[in-house]
Amino acid sequence: MSANIRNFCIIAHIDHGKSTLADRFLELTGTVDKREMKNQILDSMDLERERGITIKLTPATMRFRDYILNLIDTPGHVDFSYEVSRSLAAVEGAILLVDATQGVQAQTLANLYLAIEQGLEIIPVINKIDLAAADVERTKREIVGLVGCREDEILLCSAKTGEGVKQILCSIVEKVPAPKVDTEKPLRALIFDSFYDEYKGVVAYVRVMDGQLKKGEKICMIGASERGEVLDCGILKPKQFSTGKLSAGEIGYVVTGLKELEKCRVGDTLTKSEILNSKSEILPLPGYKEVKPMVYAGIFCEEGNEYNELREAIAKLKLNDAALVYEPESSPVLGFGFRCGFLGLLHLEIFQERLRREFNLAIIVTVPSVAYKVALKKGNKFPPNLKKNQILSDVEYIIKNPNEFPDPSQIDHMEEPIMTVDIVTPKEYLGAVMQLVQEMRGEYLNTEYLEATRALLHYRIPLSMLIVDFHDKLKTVSSGYASMNYDFYQYAKADLIKMDMMIAEEPVEAFALIIYRDMAFQIGKKIVGILKNKISKHQFVIKIQAMVGGKVVASERISALRKDVTAKLYGGDWTRRAKLLEKQKKGKKKMMEMGRGRVNIPPDAYLAVMKR
Asked: pTM here?
């Protein structure tokens, strides 16, 4: 049976046509009825459809001739690269999809290297050949230089019109190796994704490596040491289609019977309870390397009584999003919440949007920061509320939150994360891109040429400069043609300070951030300007101040909301008008002496400062 199975995924840069190609596969193989067919059918979330990007990996089983093809559609954005790496571990082949109008992009390279590391069979495909701007010959040369294949091995297609799609399916059958399996061996299945269903409990997506799995059998998660029962199992077409069993080499779903979310971890190995009870030695599958968050932000409820709902919502999203890391956090101003770790700013944006849409929660998101290392001077003690996983040595610890910033007099030095960044750009934008990276404190390494008109730049850039608006600026200076990919390199020393934001002379924790000392005025001026435009007028004057160590570095003022007291005047001397305005001025002064009211900060103000 396994000789007729082909497991593969589609890897590409964002917007190169992965989801459209997957649609054509499902259409051509008759997996989905024509009346049920719609664009981006594997992108089940509304967010994915609205933004035109894939956020979650999605498996689907198709029949082509006498073969069973298991496809996993993967995201293309760098923030969701963990989804790609998990997909690659569950398959034997990968379609490398390249847009004929854009050529090889940065994420194309990154995903290709991941696939080569896994030892997968690569099938290069050029998409969008029907477009007038398509440059097939140039794209072919780039792929040959990258993969080392012959030009006649590169397939051409148009996922939109369906041209060349059948040849891709034939190539998958011929080139992708059948899974090497042994049905006699004890059951071992790799959990590569999971989600929580209100009625069924935890549902796991698995790739069965050895043995067989049947409905009604008792199962166990080796890593979590948790037991459950197969309430149902089957394949995805792409909806769940119950078959009652899964054999070695197949990809499908398992309803585990577990109700607690953390007991079914992505990367764990699923086996039968009887195998563990017999005390026979069974080795867990390698799983995945632990993901390292790059960006941290605090998530708090606008209403304090919604904390339990927020905790349950984050736990459910964690099951569906293995790259998310979170821990409880409390703030004297914002109350109880969570400090969450993300792979990038888009990951954070999608996460907060899902909390609002799927769980109807009103939340406050603090300004994102990265994890900094702090080295204290000898003789100084760690802060009392520090967690064990933050301590690195006798004098070093990690801070993920600007409000954990210690007294500057106690700091020996601080270190920030540095990333290796690959930027692919047309030659004519080379100067503008290099100037932008220089402004972002980038360290130039070298330049490679993919072909005569396109260059691959290698840099090292601080992560704090990447997470805010670097990607948007890169697209602006290159007219949308440049693309980037980044990976962690090391920590390096930096001159950093904490900036507090005061609104109506009250500190707002959500806007606190760690910045470079020489950029304090520039960043402070920008943020107070954003807040002045976003906060509406109140009955009193609102001062907005950016402060560093008790010193105001930038400020703005929002004037008080005033009634037009002169509207009733229709004539007479100007002194009548002046008298009424003076009376109003005294009233406002008296109001200020009685104390200020609470300033309402709209949710889009947090988002605007986050993106600044």
From this structure: 0.76
| pLDDT value at residue 51 | 67
Tell me the domain boundaries of the chain.
2-175, 188-277, 295-368, 373-494, 498-611
Asked if residue 192 lies in contact with residue 205, where contact means CB atoms within 8 angstroms, the answer is yes
Tell me which DSSP letter residue 158 carries. Answer: B
Residue-wise burial string across 477-504, b where 16 or more C-beta atoms lie within 10 A, e elsewhere: bbeebbbbbbeeeeeeebebbbbbbbbb
Q: Which fold, 498-611?
A: Alpha-Beta Plaits (3.30.70)
User: Once rounded to an integer, what is the mean pLDDT over residues 414-436?
Assistant: 91
Q: What does the pLDDT look like over 269-299, one tens digit per residue?
A: 888 887 666 655 677 777 666 677 878 888 8
pLDDT > 90 fraction of the chain, expressed in percent and rounded: 17
CB 57 within 8 A of CB 72: yes
Among candidate residues 21, 364, 384, the one with its CA nearest the CA of residue 169 = 21
* 3-state SS class at 199: coil
> Phi then psi for 69, rounded to 5 degrees?
-110, 120
Cα–Cα distance measured from residue 222 to residue 276, given in angstroms and rounded to the nearest whole number = 9
What is the C-alpha separation between 190 and 221, in angstroms, rounded? Answer: 10
Cis bond before residue 284 (omega within 30° of 0): no
Question: Are the CB atoms for 298 and 352 separated by under 8 Å?
Answer: no
pLDDT of residue 341: 87
